[in-house]
Design brief:
mainly alpha, Growth Hormone, Chain: A, Major facilitator superfamily (MFS) profile domain-containing protein, transmembrane helix, monocarboxylic acid transmembrane transporter activity, MFS_trans_sf, MFS_dom
Length: 510
């Protein structure tokens, strides 16, 4: 065990070292979680013919999988808080493999909904949430870059899965392909093994410092413990005694911070994202079937997804670097709003594309816009709520988003069945995304104005108990100052203390 630092601080996010191995594991887990439901679209045309279903019925397969992946967010967050990221991801990988192998023996579309949609979708949920959460524990200064690299796993996997799925289908049929894909998904277990816990080391250092009984350090740790004592951070002895007295709601609230629904910035983010996901995934799900519908051969149709994924692959880390710059990060919410509106504009212009060349151009711009949104999806949430409440925020956001994720592709399929034309589906998706981007831009402008007004009022009052903390404007005023400090950034003790102060003072909350 390494000795405590001379200043008596617990080690903070390392911003490197083993963290890059964690990023690689998250790259794999996030890649499968996001890309796998889209890659399955290669089989939809053939499965539709095999079971004799409509476009809307076959779209429910990806829709249920995506909705389960997002809707199981709170369950995943609770499991991560209780057991850590590593065992949750490994168990999720096992569920993914079991679900796809079971799907290979399905005899009805309803069985596909259960095996592919629910079982595999739940396994992907247990891969997505822990991967996003653990990056926030290993990185602070370089967090946007780390998130961008991890999120790049989605386009890399999609670029690989699209032609691979077409190759597997041509040689083994959709049933044999599902068996092989189930074995491939077991690699998520290997990715989870890389998620070495960072928390226990911090606890050990705190215990060692307390036992040594050094005057100044002992007082500092005691003060930190007093400041952090709250219903969500109870000492182990008291937690054991009071566990039996808590009802179900109190136990759930221990892992999910429902006070976030009083948080102005969180509510703005939640409403905008719920609206956005109504048109976010449907264009990818129907891109390859649309190409086949207008007479393009199977491999060329699959290659459109590869083109989208290659551009997406470049866009995500590039967006992470841009978002980490001193010009963009203080106003990253505006950049995120622009990316959503740009994504919707691409869909509105898609019906103008005629022939394969037009679809290639659309795929390039769609990949760029899609990568920009995905690279900042969780970074903007952490910028709003802070690292201390991020785990709960992710769980609450994903459960709210799952409703529109569930309805998006089937609504698009219904439009295709009704009008016999794909252009109405693209127009619907583009319109709701432009509306979501506009809403977020306007409301974030209002939010920034209110934050500035509230900070000015605090300065006028001169209340020392209401010092600004890193919440909604995490990167606004304090980012440059924090990056210039020496020593570990945002130690776990200080992080928990500041998170508690924010809850007590109600800073930046409605």
């Amino acid at each position: 065990m390494p000795p405590p630092t001379p200043t008596g601080r617990a080690p903070g996010p390392p911003d490197g070292g083993w963290g890059w191995a964690v990023v690689f594991g998250a790259f794999i887990s996030i890649g499968f979680a996001y890309a796998f439901p889209k890659g399955l679209a290669i089989f939809f045309k053939e499965i539709q013919d095999f079971f004799g279903t409509s476009y809307s019925e076959i779209a429910w397969v990806s829709s249920i999988m995506l909705a389960t992946t997002y809707g199981a967010g709170p369950i995943s967050s609770i499991l991560v808080n209780r057991y850590g990221s590593r065992p949750v991801v490994i168990f999720g990988g096992l569920l993914c493999g079991i679900g796809m192998v079971s799907a290979a023996f399905c005899t009805s579309i309803l069985q596909l909904y259960i095996c592919v949609g629910f079982i595999t979708g739940f396994g992907l949920a247990l891969n997505l949430q822990p991967s996003v959460i653990i990056i926030g524990k290993y990185f602070l200064k370089r967090r946007p870059i780390a998130n961008g690299l991890a999120m790049a796993g989605s386009p890399v996997m999609l670029c690989t899965l699209a032609p691979l799925n077409q190759f597997l289908f041509d040689n083994f049929g959709w049933r044999g392909s599902f068996l092989i894909l189930g074995a491939i998904l077991l690699n998520c277990c290997v990715a989870g093994a890389l998620f070495r816990p960072i928390g226990p080391a911090t606890v050990s250092v705190k215990t060692q410092m307390t036992e040594e009984g050094k005057g100044a350090l002992k007082e500092e740790v005691t003060e930190d413990a007093m400041e952090m004592s709250s219903p969500t951070d109870v000492p182990m002895e008291n937690k054991t005694e009071e566990e039996g007295g808590k009802d179900c709601c109190e136990k759930i609230n221990q892992y999910l911070d429902f006070s976030l629904f009083k948080h102005r910035g969180f509510l703005i983010y939640l409403i905008g994202n719920v609206l956005m996901f109504l048109g976010f995934f449907a264009p990818i799900v129907f891109l390859a079937p649309y190409a086949k519908h207008i007479g393009i051969d199977e491999y060329s149709a699959a290659f459109l997804l590869s083109i989208l994924a290659i551009v997406d692959m470049i866009a995500r880390p590039t967006t992470g670097i841009i978002a980490n710059s001193k010009w963009v990060r203080p106003r990253i919410q505006y950049f995120f709003s622009f990316s959503i509106a740009f994504n919707g504009t691409c869909h509105l212009l898609c019906p103008l594309a005629s022939g394969y060349t037009g679809l290639v151009v659309y795929s390039i711009f769609f990949g760029l816009a899609f990568g920009m949104v995905c690279a900042m999806l969780f970074e903007t949430l952490m910028d709003l709520v802070g690292a201390a409440r991020f785990t709960s925020a992710v769980g609450l956001v994903t459960i709210a988003e799952c409703c529109t994720i569930l309805l998006g592709p089937p609504i698009g399929g219904t439009l295709i069945d009704t009008f016999g034309d794909y252009k109405y589906m693209f127009i619907k998706c583009g319109a709701v995304m432009v509306l979501a981007g506009t809403f977020l831009f306007i409301m974030n402008y209002y939010n920034y104005r209110m934050l500035a007004k509230e900070e000015k009022e605090r300065k006028v009052k001169g209340d020392p108990k209401e010092d600004p903390v890193r919440t909604e404007n995490e990167g606004k005023n304090n980012w440059n100052k924090e990056t210039a400090q020496d020593g570990p950034e945002l130690e776990p003790l200080r992080e928990e203390r500041e998170g508690l102060k924010k809850e007590v003072n109600g800073t930046n909350e409605v």
